[in-house]
Amino acid sequence: MSGDCIHSSTINQVIPSARGCEECLATGSEWLHLRLCRSCGHVGCCDDSPNRHATAHFHATHHPIIEGYDPPEGWGWCYVDRVVVDLPDQTPQRGPIPRYY
């Protein structure tokens, strides 16, 4: 874990909530990349996507750490400390993830 982040206790093994951005799938929106909340398993779209649902999830829940999720990329990000964090593991995908861009 990065020395600049103190939120490692919030990293859980999670089950992804969807096979794409949960909110985009519900509304028919597009996304660029996916982010997985390592507190609860919410799958949201990245900040380069039109709706930025992963960041919106952080603001609503204060869950600090996400994982790059499509495909599993092996890196984490702490929204609070604004640093890349080392994750103890990678979350496997639940199945094929549709691509929109």
| Strand order of the biggest β-sheet | 2-1-3-4-5
Query: What's the number of extended β-strand segments?
Result: 5
CATH topology of the domain at 18-86: Herpes Virus-1
Strand content: 15-25%
Q: What's the Cα radius of gyration?
A: 12 Å
Low-confidence stretches: none
Give the C-level CATH assignment of the domain at 18-86. Alpha Beta
* pLDDT averaged residue by residue: 91
User: Total helix count?
Assistant: 2
What separation lies between the terminal Cα atoms?
31 Å
**Helix and strand run:** HEEHEEE
If classified by CATH, what would the architecture of the domain at 18-86 be? 2-Layer Sandwich
**What structural class do you assign from the helix and strand content?**
alpha+beta
Please describe what this structure looks like.
- With 101 residues, the chain is an alpha+beta fold.
- It has a domain of 69 residues: Zinc/RING finger domain, C3HC4 (zinc finger) (Herpes Virus-1), CATH 3.30.40.
- The protein is 15% helix and 19% strand.
- It is built from 2 helices and 5 strands.
- The protein has a 5-stranded antiparallel beta sheet.
- The radius of gyration is 12 Å and the shape is globular.
- The mean pLDDT is 91.
